[in-house]
Write a structure and sequence with these properties.
This protein is α+β, with helices and mostly antiparallel strands and 73 residues long. It has two helices and three strands.
């Protein structure tokens, strides 16, 4: 995923804030290195256009992971 693909609809809808959410079919909600990297790239990209990221949540069979709760966003 490229940040522009995510930023574009948020700008089009005049979003002030967004929450990202995706699932991990493996059942483990812990973020992968890729999850952390894309979250950081999205945070930088959205900051440039003035849109706040409230959270990035990963949902899995064994629970969920919130970047906000872990002070990673």
């Amino acid at each position: 995923m490229h940040p522009r693909e995510v930023v574009k609809p948020a700008i089009k809808e005049s979003a002030a804030s967004v929450i990202f959410i995706h699932n991990h079919p493996s059942g483990d909600p812990e973020p992968s290195v890729d999850d952390i990297e894309i979250t950081n790239r999205l945070r930088k990209s959205f900051s440039i256009v003035g849109i706040n990221i409230l959270d990035h949540i990963i949902v899995a069979e064994n629970g969920y992971f919130s970047f906000k709760q872990k002070d990673m966003i």
